[in-house]
Amino acid sequence: MGTKRKLERSNQDGETEISTSHPEIPLSIAGDTFRVVTGCYERVLHGYDVKIVDGKSTVFLPVFIFSAHLGPIKCVAAKGRYLATGGSDEIIKLHDLKKRKDLGSLISHSGAITSIYFPFRGHMLSTSEDGKMIIWSTKNWDPQEILKGHKGSVNDVAIHPSGKIALSVGRDRTMRLWNMMTGRKANVQKIEYEGLCVKWNREGDKFALMSIGKVAVYNMVCPRFSAWVNLQEILKVLEIDTNTRLHAMEYYNHINHGEVILVACEDRSVKMYNSKNGKLLLEFSGHSSRVKTFGIVRVLEVDFLVTATSSGDITIWDINAQKLLGKHETLARLTCLSIIDPVVEQVESILLSANRQGFREQGGREAKKR
């Protein structure tokens, strides 16, 4: 069975359509509380409920903490009921937030896990230093497609909003276009720098490529992007030199500045750039150490920036007011984070359920998938 049949479904009219889930930036929360899950070098997964108090301050409530991997945790992702983490131990750990149970481990990769996404309904996508990208079914957690092409680590991948194609970047200094209808490589293009992160804008007519200290913005010549577009036809329209090492990047639509690019920086800040002219618009500075990653959440119609530093701080900023609302020290060297709507669990504490139902790694049933 090919990927085309696996990733498609029929609508009410019987027509075939792609079931996609473009990353929601920002994630909208109905109440005043959201959950932050962080991974760290110490192999521990932390969970905190963060309550926004009158839009002026925050309260951090510890929810869970447990050892999740045999090595440093490199990435974490959540979608609906599922939480997935990837580590340097080459393992993907799975948790069902709704049933509050450990689903086991996926061990089809033979290198450290570099990124995890839930881009399609019913599917998860992982990348690894082994040069492979794997599309998993969340129904039975079997690999549905294994995409190979990069010579060395696949650092990141981004699914186009249409769901028809994906862009990946790797240590081999190439960006590769993948036809998600067939699960095959469609094109490859050499680039000047090693791509560490790649993101599409919301419209899907541009993408940003992050390297160690630069962000390059590319414009798609073809107005209706499809899997057969040649990467030779893309046009670099902007290059931003940030003068600092970069660790994470995301497109965001700002209420005043429109489409912008946010980057997490070595110089203890998160910088916001105009995506059209590269002008530095805002800077969220004052972190205790390098900012490793960040997320954006919308609470009661207000957008908040959530950052994680390598010294263990989680900070919450009001993006529009550019104001620091709160900070929590985890005492761990943070590497990644994910923001979750806690409503999915409908329990007051996952820690209590962890003790009862074996959510901790000890005694957890492993579902080994090769």
Short summary of the structure?
The protein has two helices and 31 strands.
Spatial ordering of strands, largest sheet: 3-27-28-29-30
Percentage of residues assigned to helices: under 10%
Judged by helices, strands and strand pairing, the structural class is mainly beta
Q: Would you tell me the overall average pLDDT? A: 85
Cα Rg: 20 Å
Low-pLDDT ranges = 1-22, 347-370
- What quaternary form is this? single chain
Topology:
Elements lengths: L2 H4 L1 E3 L5 E3 L8 E3 L3 E8 L3 E10 L3 E11 L5 E7 L2 E6 L4 E5 L4 E6 L6 E8 L2 E6 L3 E6 L5 E6 L5 E6 L5 E6 L3 E6 L4 E7 L6 E4 L5 E5 L3 E6 L15 E7 L4 E9 L3 E8 L4 E5 L5 E5 L6 E9 L2 E8 L3 E6 L4 E7 L4 E7 L9 H8 L13
Parallel strand pairs: 3-27
Antiparallel strand pairs: 1-2, 4-5, 4-31, 5-6, 7-8, 8-9, 9-10, 11-12, 12-13, 13-14, 15-16, 16-17, 17-18, 19-20, 20-21, 21-22, 23-24, 24-25, 25-26, 27-28, 28-29, 29-30
Provide structural commentary:
Helix content is 3%, strand content 54%. The protein has two helices and 31 strands. The protein has helices spanning 3-6, 350-357, and strands at residues 8-10, 16-18, 27-29, 33-40, 44-53, 57-67, 73-79, 82-87, 92-96, 101-106, 113-120, 123-128, 132-137, 143-148, 154-159, 165-170, 174-179, 184-190, 197-200, 206-210, 214-219, 235-241, 246-254, 258-265, 270-274, 280-284, 291-299, 302-309, 313-318, 323-329, 334-340. It has a five-stranded mixed sheet, with no helix packed on it. Strand 4 and strand 5 (44-53) form a beta hairpin. The protein is globular.
